[in-house]
Amino acid sequence: MATEHGRATSQSNEAAVRRLYAAFARTDYAQHVRSCLADGAVWHISGSHPLAGDVVGADAIVSRMLQFGEASNNTLRLDTTIVATPTHTVAIHEATASRPGMQYAAHEIDVFHVRDGLVSEFWSFSEDQGATDHIWS
Description:
The protein is an alpha+beta fold. Helices cover 31% and strands 43% of the residues.
């Protein structure tokens, strides 16, 4: 991890989040995603659908990510742009997914905190929460 006097840099935070998204591209992604997360990581998922809420712990986060994949028959795709500062990293997505009889397309934003090169906390938001609730319900 590139740091400046022991502190995270924009580049090191961006690299940590890029590793997380690159892990999704792997067939065996669960173990690779897990390796990008701090043990006590927290994922805050906005909305009022069954997969929404706070998920605590790296293993629980990986399990929830697998649920999103299963719910979409593994059609969830994120075209992502990442912007980082030394304190926050933001991923802006064009997200798509489908389920029988429904298509989903929306802009989504994930905001990350990175600690020691690992994602420690992140928040997920959708531009169209109604559509997001519908696809994941």
